[in-house]
């Protein structure tokens, strides 16, 4: 609904701020990462995400688009709500989260308050290949150790197929190593 809000900061705290824009004072929930970037500013632009719940409309603001995109990806994970996503992004920058996912470092995620081993593994599984470093550094962080077979397995699991069934189907395919990920997925689906 709102792509971003730009205006005067009338109140700031590490988790919440009031932003005056167009004569309206918006209450915006923020992460510690955003707070550290805007704490000394009097005016700013926040990229927003509006969550409409049965009992409230809650506005979340982020200092940059990468953090908002990461927040939205986290919301798409079963068991990760807005409060948990905000805690994750308050504890880890999007780059640190990307690194933890790429390196399958569940310990880094488990250090975040409220994240257990199962949730950490689910975050890694579901975000693998979705997070990319948006900065123009000349390099793109890609998942390490992934093969075509592993990529196909992840895709099949994300489609709701049990991991053991997906692994069995992939093993049945002749010359799996020479096929593209898409073709491997198609053949595995036929083999189920």
Verbal overview:
The chain has 192 residues and is an alpha+beta fold. It has three domains: 4-62, Beta Barrel (OB fold (Dihydrolipoamide Acetyltransferase, E2P)), CATH 2.40.50.140; 66-127, Orthogonal Bundle (DNA polymerase, domain 1); 148-191. Helices cover 44% and strands 19% of the residues. The protein contains nine helices and five strands, in the order βββαββαααααααα. It has helices at residues 32-38, 65-75, 82-91, 94-102, 106-110, 117-127, 148-158, 163-171, 181-191, and strands at residues 4-12, 16-21, 24-29, 43-52, 57-62. A five-stranded antiparallel sheet has the order 3-2-1-4-5, with helices on both faces. The longest helix is centred in the middle third of the chain and has 11 residues, at 65-75. The chain starts with a strand and ends with a helix. Residues 144-192 are annotated as: Domain III.
Structural class: alpha+beta
Distance between the termini: 41 Å
Q: Tell me the β content.
A: 15-25%
Unreliable segments of 5+ consecutive residues: 133-145
| Full CATH superfamily name of the largest domain | 5' to 3' exonuclease, C-terminal subdomain
Overall form: elongated
Number of spatially distinct domains: 3
If you average the pLDDT, what whole number results? 86
- What is the N-to-C succession of helices and strands? EEEHEEHHHHHHHH
The CATH class designation of the largest domain is Mainly Alpha
Q: What is the CATH topology descriptor of the largest domain?
A: DNA polymerase, domain 1
Provide the helix percentage.
40-55%
Radius of gyration: 20 Å
Task: Report the count of strand segments.
Answer: 5
């Amino acid at each position: 609904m709102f792509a971003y809000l730009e205006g005067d900061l009338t109140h700031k705290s590490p988790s919440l701020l009031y932003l005056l824009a167009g004569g309206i004072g918006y209450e915006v929930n923020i992460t510690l990462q955003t707070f550290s970037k805007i704490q000394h500013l009097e005016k700013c632009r926040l990229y927003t995400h509006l969550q409409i719940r049965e009992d409230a409309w809650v506005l979340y603001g982020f200092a940059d688009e990468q953090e908002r995109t990461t927040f939205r990806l986290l919301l798409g994970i079963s068991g990760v709500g807005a409060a948990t996503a905000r805690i994750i992004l308050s504890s880890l920058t999007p780059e640190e989260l990307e690194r933890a996912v790429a390196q399958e470092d569940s310990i880094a995620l488990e250090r975040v308050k409220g994240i257990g081993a199962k949730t950490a593994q689910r975050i890694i599984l579901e975000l693998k290949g979705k997070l990319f470093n948006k900065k123009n550094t000349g390099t793109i962080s890609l998942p390490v150790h992934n093969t075509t077979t592993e990529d196909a397995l992840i895709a099949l699991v994300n489609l709701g197929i049990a991991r053991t069934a997906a692994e069995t189907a992939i093993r049945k395919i002749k010359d799996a190593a020479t096929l593209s990920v898409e073709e491997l997925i198609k053949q595995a689906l036929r083999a189920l």
